[in-house]
Sequence to fold (1001 residues):
Amino acid sequence: MKTRSTLLGYALIAPAIVLLLVLLFIPLLYSLQISFQDTDLSHGAPKWVGLSAYVDSWKNGELWKVGKHSIVWTVSVAFFQVLVGLLAALMLNRKFPLRWLVRVLVLLPWVLPGVIAALTWRLVYDSQFGFLNSLIAKLGFGQHATDWLGTPGLAMFSVVLAAIWKGYPFAMLMLLAALQSVPQDQYEAAKIDGADGWRQFIHITLPSISGVMKTVVLLVSIWTFNYFEMIYVLTGGGPVRSTHIAPTYIYELSFGHFDFGEASRVSVISFLFIFLISLILIRQMHKNERN
Amino acid sequence: MIIKRLGSRILFTAGILLLLFFTLFPFMQMLSTSLKSSDQLFTVPPVWIPKHATLSNFAAAMQHQQFVHYFMNSLLVSVVTCILVIIVSVLAAYSFTRLEFPGRKFFMNVILVSQMFCISAVVIPLYKIVSALGLLNSFPGLILAYMAFTVPVAVWLLRSFMLNIPVDMEESAMMEGASQLQAFIKVVVPLLRPGIGATAAYVFLMTWQEFLFSLVFMTDPSKRTLPIGIMDFKGQYETNWGTMMAASILISIPVFVLFLIIQRQLISGLTEGATKG
Amino acid sequence: MDLKRVGQMLLVTCLILVMLAGCGSGNSGSGKSSSPGSSSGGDSKKQQSLVIWTLQQADTNIQEAQENAAKSFEEKYNAKVQITAFPYDQLKSKLLPAVAGGEGPDILLLDQVWVAQYAAAKYIVPLDDYMGKSEIKAEDYFDGAWGAGSFQNNIYAIPFDVGVWGVLYYNKDMFKAAGLDPEKPPLTWEEFLQDGQKLTKDGKYGASNWAGSSESVQCLIDAFTVAGGGKLLDESGKKIMINEDPGVKALQFWADMSKISPPGSVGKNEEDAMTLFTSGQTAMTMYGEWGQDTIKTRAPNMNYGVANLPKPAGGESIGTFGGFNLAINANSSNKDLAWEFIKYSTNEENQKTITMLTPANKKAAKEYLNQKRQFPDVIYQQLTTATYRPNVANYPAIADLQLQATQKVMTGEMSAKDALQEAATKINDLLNK
Fold:
């Protein structure tokens, strides 16, 4: 049951909405307007070209490549962040000695400023001085000088791994909070019924945390799509642009080429893309809420 | 039965250790680097535990005159942002989950959509707005920008936590004569504590480590935040790895301690909520 | 319904928000006077103020010299000068939103390769009128640095300091150990690769190339192209020439260096290559003359030499200019004073003490190099003959296409000829869009 109260309802959301309108939606409208202009510096002053600007960006071909990389990046990072986060949350929800310490230790990657985290991974991946190649040698797999960030194909894997590391604590934290609000008596009842751990997980745990889980999946996907620093510092989009994703491309276009029109087009398109995907996810969520 | 339990115990321990190793592996290189003097920094193969460990990098980081200053700036910005965002977002989340009014869905979608913006795409127009408000190079300007970028997520998180709290508990409290606000404070807020804690942690960390806004909006050296300040150690041509890593460790310690405290509170909040529920 | 109290809570929230905004605008009163681009302010009514954004100095002596120079400028012109320093990456990301947003400092310190962009976007003003009324002469500065400050026949930025990509650093002890004469560094590409082979043993390597996300590799390959008698652009500036023979050979030389380099060069950048050299993993490296500072801090006891870049068969030893020029913000309300300051900071006397790289003023450069650098003659020679990168508005896009070609060759995806052909086609499209 919901209380019907128009005035109070509006009043309570007003601060949030005003803030967003002024600081986010005005910039968005501005971007939208710029996106219909040709701002290539070699063409002189910006010109209004309308929708044909979008057609040109599409024909360019770069957008398609960047889009593909963005999808691979987003899906793999988001999936594993949530998976690792869930496993971690399940483990940390059980009692064991020093649990309080472990719970805080696993938050460390998230605490570290993004640029520092990326620079640290640069060291780790260094083919001569990095600990990763050294670890592989110590584990007995032989001395290699793998170029983690310079080999096309491998570079994407490397940035994805670093991004999973940086972001999984958020998923873990959220899911842990959700797990703790699962009523304990349900487990007691299930134990009496003789359900094993797996069944308890499927029938009690998962349904109870599914609401938070979906929110986490949605948020992590959006953030990953827009996550910029890791790739920017580690590979700058290389080698041969094999790790260029939408945000690094937008940054390159605006801060590198001063081509704000093209940058706005890419950001409008990627915004629409995220919007559509989110819409599908949210539909799903609302359905569940109603049930 | 005993073997099975032992097996699962071993598996569990291995899982925890693996998780810790994955999490802490880059920190090992960080710590190792911070303890090496510049002539030991780069050797092939890399040395994990330096033979002649030195604390000189930590001393150098501490001596950096602005370092403590940067730290205080970051702390101020993060804490204020955190408090304001939680207030604004709890109100909005309550409104979205407990009240019915025309356009509710629409505004919810407005909030949702606003998390989808890419920072590097809006930073230039946002700069113009902050400049028009006369808030460039000031903490309120930076805090407002951070609020804009964290409020949407905060509202969504709090909303999903609030949805998990059964409405009938508030209703029964109200039937017993509590006002709506009393019901909110006495029933919803305690149960919401883990949610508020998690959301606050999110907001705090987002602001604590944010780079681009802080770089673009703040010019005065005395107003720089830590993520910017720490990059002082990375020059155009030469990165002072040892000192930078030492500084990174130094700034992680207080946050680590803060989380140790918060986490105990989170749990006590939870158990309280559980017994009362 | 407890509307009142919820309303109160709301009121408090709004109040806090308003206070926040209010105290912000309160601050901005005082903030504005120091804030970039704004005109008046300061104590006395007539006193003008200048805001300058510059690069952070590792060397505190330079910082001090800059402060002193600013102080005497303040006294001379009864003005207030405010210098704020940033690390390179930060300066780059910070300047653009500020200047594009109608703010920013009065005087911009621009990397040479940014000048054309800032000029094309009309963020900075042409200086030809000021030039005509002053004693500043192009001949006083290194050609390449002066050329980099012009765009479409106008002067937009006066050279402040310069550097050259690069010179050859070599480890004399490693040369001895490999049976090479430590006083005879390689002069040609062939000798360089041969010596490199001899130095590549026992887990150590001759040199290291790189192709990470950095433009420095393009500086060197451009230099090698010109060294082999090639050109980067034709006279009209509408056609790229890197796909001709000298360009192909230059890229091939760079890629061939992989044979004498530690594995994993594609993911490296110039700093990584320098780290390999200072840590004794490689015997030679190509780097700017400022690399001496890095060696001083990282490997103070290294017995090293500096030589000119090796030259191609039948070619010369040529490097590429880097460095910074000073320009005036189109939004500045104190352009005349800003020009005075630019003149002031590029004169011979000041140049000796306040630049981070080598002074752009040739006379000052000589003295500076003699005082601060080992092997000053080698560096001076490399500077006077250096070429500069194409100063066209979309240079960054061009440099990226070049970098991709380099990466494709170094990962073995394509031959140098094909990769450069592909890049040239795309670059010509860009130049003639």
